[in-house]
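User: Sequence in, structure out. Go.
Assistant: Echoing your sequence, followed by the structure tokens.
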Amino acid sequence: MTYETALHRADAALTVRAEYPLDGDLAVDAVQEWLEFSTFPEAFEPGPDLPDLLGPDRRLHFDATDACEWLVDLTGKHPVWRPGPGDATATARGPVTDLLLYFYRRPTSAVETKGDTALLDLWRTRAGFWLEAPGA
């Protein structure tokens, strides 16, 4: 519930164009929770009307400029993530709170993306499976 509450606070701040401060350690933990969700079978298994997420040369790099970095490897039988840098097909870079907002598809101009941005978008959609209402 902590991260859900933090996201609702972000939504309120975005609505009134206010600053959105979030403790850095909390934001890192929330990003890592999202990365963990991306390894659940619902996030990557093939299905009708679901584009394949896994494949060769599919690695994502997330660089929290004020915290740490993560690499998500989509080249195996399931996604694997780890802290640290690495060669990537696509990169998203920005402050950790903004990366968190980017994962949740909230507006942020502080995250820069490069490389295969369609893969980044697909990963965010698939990793956010748990946000979708049943039957949506």
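User: And one key feature?
Assistant: The chain has a mean pLDDT of 87.
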